[in-house]
Amino acid sequence: MKKTQKNIAKTAKDLIVKPIYYHFPVVDSTNTTAKKCYDENKLKEGSIIYCSQQKKGKGRGNNAWFSSDNESLCFSIILEPLFLEASNYYQLHKLTSISLIESLESFIPEKKLQIKWPNDIYFEHKKLGGILISNTIKGSTISLSIIGVGININQEKFPKELINPVSLKEICGRKYPTENILKKIGIQFFSNYSKLIKDLNSFDSCYQKRLYKLNKKSRFIIKKKECTAIIRGVNEDGKILLEDAAKINAYAMDEVKMLIV
Ligand code: BTN
Predict the structure, then answer these.
(1) Residue 46 in contact with residue 17, Cβ under 8 Å?
(2) What does the pLDDT read at residue 71?
(3) In a designed cystine with 232, which of 45, 116, 212, 241 is the match (CB 3.0 to 4.6 A)?
(4) Does residue 29 line the site of ligand 1, with CB under 6 A?
(5) Strand, coil or helix: what is 244?
(6) pLDDT tens for each residue of 71-93
């Protein structure tokens, strides 16, 4: 079923949000800094907060996010997507992951990036980056979204406890200035954001095509039990569709964990 937009009173001018970049040398978390600056009316929609050193980076669930000073890209984007019903929140995940893939692939000759549901950017079987989105709901719509992104850019070493990290340097064999990559992502993200405002389904099919392990047998832990199932897609609520014994079930992010080969 196609999603419809309820709350579009946007003019053509409103459809274009320009990124404005704010550098902080050291922060605990760019997501926390972005939220605080927004709450204090210091930053508005379109702001991209990035840092050289992130001391307490947050990952999904209760995980911490590892980053290396000056070598990783850690940033948060402030959006006011009032046109989005809260139930459509997953469109922001699609927008972000497709924007990252499109911009990062301009540096990767093999163009092989994929999205490991729900929020990871993968190169082959390794994690290049992750996304952490926090939304504020007002009435039935999303009044504020803080979109946090961490990407491994120039690292050559990672802590042992990370299962399968990879950096752009390891993929491409050369280092990149992190700010150049951020600018590329910012332009792509806001160009795609304009598309999303016009059509909420803009990224549905490319998101589906880029899903890691789509239509392949994979191993999962569901309700504490290990099992095998086939990923058939992601539904409107952002739940993963897993086929097992010819039956397709939808699972939320906190109900299932995919095991990596
Ligand atoms: C994940 O894969 O678990 C999500 C990682 C998200 C990390 C980014 S780094 C910038 C922003 N600030 C944070 O504290 N987290 C996100």
Answers:
(1) yes
(2) 97
(3) 241
(4) yes
(5) strand
(6) 999 999 999 999 999 999 999 99
DSSP string over 119-161 = TEEEETTEEEEEEEEEEEEETTEEEEEEEEEEEE-S-S---TT
The rounded Cα 3 to chain-centroid distance in angstroms is: 21
Residue minimizing CA distance to atom 11 of ligand 1: 148
Q: What number does the ligand 1 atom closest to the CA of 67 have?
A: 9
The answer to whether the CB of 205 falls within 8 A of the CB of 246 is: no
- Predicted confidence at residue 4, as pLDDT, reads 45
Distance CA 89, CA 3 (A): 12
Separation of alpha carbons 245 and 242, rounded Å: 10
Atom of ligand 1 nearest to the CA of 28: 14
The torsion angles phi and psi of 40, rounded to 5 degrees, stand at -90, 10
The pTM of the full predicted model, rounded to 2 decimals, is 0.93
Of 3-7, 30-34, 49-53, 116-120, the range with the lowest mean pLDDT is 3-7
Q: 132, 58 in Cβ contact below 8 A? A: yes
